Structure prediction request, 49 residues.
Amino acid sequence: MDSQETLKFSVLSGVRTMNEVFPLEGVAEAYERMISGKARSRIVLTTGG
Prediction:
């Protein structure tokens, strides 16, 4: 129930996630940013499809 209320609040108030998007081929760079603490948002890997 809490998760549903949180999602409703996000939609109503316009809250958006901040993402750093990397192609799957860039997994090493994404991992390094995450481990080193340089990532300031969510790291997201994308596939070609």
Notes: The first strand starts at residue 19 and ends at 23. The two ends are 33 Å apart (CA to CA). Helices lie at 2-13, 27-36.
